[in-house]
Amino acid sequence: MTDDNPPSTLRIPVAVLLGLAAPPIGLLAWIALSGSRRNDYLRSPWVRTGMALGIASALPLLTVAGAAGLGLWPDPNPNPIGLGLLLFAGGGVATVLIAAGIVLIGKGEPRTRE
Questions:
Q1: Residue 108 has pLDDT above 90, yes or no
Q2: 10 Å Cβ neighbour count for 76?
Q3: Which domain holds residue 79?
Q4: Is residue 1 part of a domain?
Q5: How much is the pLDDT for 97?
Q6: Does residue 23 lie in a domain region?
Q7: pLDDT reported for residue 107
Q8: Is residue 112 part of a domain?
Q9: CA neighbours within 13 Å on the CB side: how many for 85?
Q10: 72: helix, coil or strand?
Q11: 35, 58, 101, 102: which could form a disulfide with 44 (CB 3.0–4.6 Å)?
Q12: What is the pLDDT of residues 73-95, one digit of tens each?
């Protein structure tokens, strides 16, 4: 790792504050404020899988809410408890995967591209 772009001095406080409110957002803040190490995090298969799972678990709920807001859903005031539980479970697994990727990259495992 080269230190041509060091991590932000706000990385730890911002990640902790956001992590207390919403752990997935805290982890994303940690990655976003990591300077030149950001690309290492984003290349990690753990982080990529976690992000994809988080997005995939949120899309059904967002689709129902958006369709209801536009009047395209049969019920104008839906109660999609199942989709909310899917988001909660998927977000939990996504948070664990992203955290694992951050820890593995932080331990200094080399990521060579040869």
A1: no
A2: 8
A3: 11-106
A4: no
A5: 96
A6: yes
A7: 84
A8: no
A9: 4
A10: coil
A11: 101
A12: 898 889 899 999 999 999 999 99
Distance CA 101, CA 47 (A): 5
Residue 24, SS3?
A: helix
Q: What does the CA dihedral 51, 54, 60, 62 come to, rounded to 10 degrees?
A: -90
Q: What total of structural domains would you count in the chain?
A: 1
113, part of any domain: no
* Whether 60 contacts 83, CB under 8 Å: yes
Is the distance from CB of 58 to CB of 112 less than 8 angstroms? no
| Eight-state DSSP code of residue 73 | S
Query: What number of CA atoms fall less than 13 Å from residue 10's CA on the CB side?
Result: 6
Chain segment 4-20, per-residue pLDDT in tens: 788 889 989 999 999 89
71 CB-near residues (< 8 Å, 6+ apart): none
* Separation of alpha carbons 11 and 71, rounded Å: 42
Task: Say if residues 33 and 14 touch (Cβ distance below 8 Å).
Answer: yes
Q: How many CA atoms does the CB half-sphere of 89 hold within 13 Å?
A: 6
